[in-house]
Amino acid sequence: MEILKCEGVKKVYGSGGNQVTALDGIDLSVSKGEFVAILGASGSGKSTLLHILGSVDKPTAGKVVIDGTDLSRLNQTQAAIFRRRKVGLVYQFYNLIPTLTAKKNILMPLSLDKKTPNQEYFEKVVKSLGIADKLDVMPNQLSGGQQQRVAIARSLIYRPVLLLADEPTGNLDQKNSREVVDMLKLSNRNLEQTILLITHDEKVAMEAERIITLEDGRIISDERRRANAKHF
Question: Which residues constitute the domain of residue 154?
Answer without folding.
Answer: 2-224
